[in-house]
Task: structure prediction
Amino acid sequence: MMREFVKTYTSLYKEHEDTLNRSSVPLLNQQRSNAMERFDQMGFPDNKREDYRHLDLTAVLEVDYGMNLKRFNIPSNPHDVFRCDVPNLTTKLMFSVNDQFYPNEKPLNLPQGVLCGSLAELSKTHEALLAPYFNQLAEQSLDGLVHFNTAFAQDGFLLYVPENVILDKPLQLIQILQGPEEMLVQRRLLVIMEKGSQAQLLLCDHTLSPNRFLVNQVSELFVADNARLEYYELEMSHAATTRLSHTFASVGASANLSQNGMTLSNGLTRNNIEVHLNGSNSEANLSGLALVENEQFVDNHIWVDHAVPHCVSNQLYKYVLDDQSKGVFSGRILVQQDAQKTAAYQSNRNLCMSKESKMFTKPQLEIYADDVRCSHGSATGQMDETAMFYIRSRGIPEKEARLLMKFAFAADVIDNIHLDPLKDRMRMLVEKRFRGELARCAGCTAAQCS
Amino acid sequence: MLLEIKDLHASIDGKEILKGINLSIKEGEIHAIMGPNGSGKSTLSAVLTGNPAFEVTHGSVSFKGKDLLELSPEDRSREGMFLSFQYPVEIPGVSMVNFMRTAINEHRKYREESPMSAADFLKFMREKRAIVELDSKLANRSVNEGFSGGEKKRNEIFQMAMLQPKLAILDETDSGLDIDALRIVAQGVNKLRSAENATMVITHYQRLLDYINPDFVHILYDGKIVKTAGPELALELEKKGYDWIKDALI
Result:
C-alpha cells in the first residue's frame, strides 16, 4: 500500500518537475532530484518500522490532496484575519499560509544583517550564505518523509542571525492552513544562529478551513558556539489536520537550545526532534505538553545525541489524555564514547483521564562513555483520588478540582517557557483548553491578543 | 442542634468499621473523641466529610437540619463542615494562594456572594496566616509540598481559619507535632472558637486536651461510642490506658 502512495508522488514529481523548479529557486532546486531518489528508496514509513510502530499513515496518505505546485496566490490577507490588540508581549509578527511565506506588510526593523522572511526570496540574494546550511542536517535522515519534503518544498521560512547579534524582541510566525480542498503542505524552516547570537522564535499552527490537511514540515536549526535559541511550537489545529514535523538541530560549543512543543488541539501529530550536541559545554532543554481528547493522537519522538564531553540535556514531556485519545512518547539519549561528563535527563509523565485513552512510552538510554550522569523515568497514571477528595473537602466542586489537578500536572512544562508573557498566555490557553472554552481566535494569537 | 448522628454504620471494602454511632453536637461545644488504634476514629471523620472510599450502610446524620449524607464533599464544606486531615495531601503545581482563593470563592458562590477581590483576598489571607504563624513563603508554595509535619498541620488550621467552618473536625492534629507546634496549633483552634461554631477533636492522647479543653469526652471502641463523660475522662484514660475500657466491656 505504502509503495502505491510513493508511486503516486514520484510520478507526480516527474510530471511537474519543471513547474516546481520554475516556481522555486536554485537553493531548493539543487536538492530536489537527490531527495526524490532517497524518497523513492526509503518510501513512506510504515508501522513495521520500530519508530513508527504506533503510527499508521495509510489512512492519511489515502486522501487525494492538492498541492499548490504552481504557486497560486494566497486567497486572503492573514493580517486581516488575525487583527488583534497586543497586551503584554509584543512580537515581530509574521505569517505563512500553507507552504508559502506571506510577505510582511511593514518592515520588521531588525538589527542589520538579520535575515528573516521567505527562504526562497532571501536565497536569491544570499544563496552563498545559505547553501552550506540548507538540507545539511535533513539530508542525513533515514525517514523518507524528510526527503519527500525536500523534493517538493518551494519556499519556507528563514531566520539568520549574524555573529553576536541579540534580538531583544521575540519573533512569531503564525503558520496558517487554509484552502478550498484537501491539501498537502510541505513546510520548510531554516534557522541559523551565528556565534554568540540570541533569538526567541514562536511558531503557532492554526487551521482555518474545515477540510483535511497534511502538513509535512522539516526544520533545521543551527546554533553555533555561544549562541542561544529559544524555539517554541504551539499547535492549535483541528481534528482533520495531520502534522508530521521533523526538526533537526546542531548545537555548538557553549551554546544553548530550548525547544518547547505544545499541542493544545490537533488531529494527528508526529513530532520528530533530533538534537546533536556537537560542541562541548552545550545544553539542550526539550519539553513538550500534549493535551488530547476524542480521537486525537500525539507522537513525540525525541533523539538527543551527545557527541562530545561536558554537555547537558533535559527532556520533560507530559501528556493529559481523555476519551479515546492516544499518546506516544519515545525518547532516546545517545551518549557517545567520547562524551564524558555528560549529564542527560529525561522524564515522561502521563495522566490518563479515561479508561479508553492509551499511552505508549519508550525511554531509551544508550551510553558508551563511562563517566556520565544520566537518568530517565516514565510514569502513567490516573487522577490521584486522595488529592481530589482533599480539594473537594475545601468546598471546590469535583469539576473544578479536576481542572486544578490537570492544570497542576501541566504546570512544570509551562514553567520551562522563559518568555514570561508567553508563559502567562500559555497558562491562560491551557486553562481555557481544559475548560473546553478554547476559541480559535484565542489561540491564533498566543502571544498577541486577549 | 448542629450535628446529630443516629445509629451510623459504615464500611470500607465490605468490612464494617462503624457499628452504630450516636452523637449530638451543639454550637459552642468542643467534643473529644478518643479511642485506641483501629477503633474507627478516622473513619468517623471521613464518613462525616463524605470520603467516597467509605460506604454508609445504615443510620442518619443531620447537619444544621439538613441530611448530611445526601451532600457531596464540596457541599458539606460549603455548608460549614471542615476536616483537618491526619495526613494532609501534597498537591504539586497548585499554589496555596490559588487553592484558597478558589475555595473561598466557591464558598461565596454557594452563598450567592460575589467573588472576593484580589486585594481583599490577600489581606484576608495575611490576617488568617498570622493566627497559626504560617510563613508567607509557605503560602506561595504548592499545597503542602515539601512542608514539614508541623507546617502541614499548621496549614490545616490556617485553612480552617480561612473557611470559618461551623463544625471543625480535627483528626489527630497533634500527631507528629513537637511541643511548640502543638501550642501554636492549639492556640489557633482556641482563637477560632466561638458560640456559633463547634469542634470535634479526634485524638489518641490526652496531650492536646491540655490546650483545647473539651466539654465532652467520648470513647470510641470497636465502632461504637462506649463511654461519654466530662474532661476528667481524658485524664483517667491517660493514667490507665485503654485496657480498662476493654476489660470493662468484656
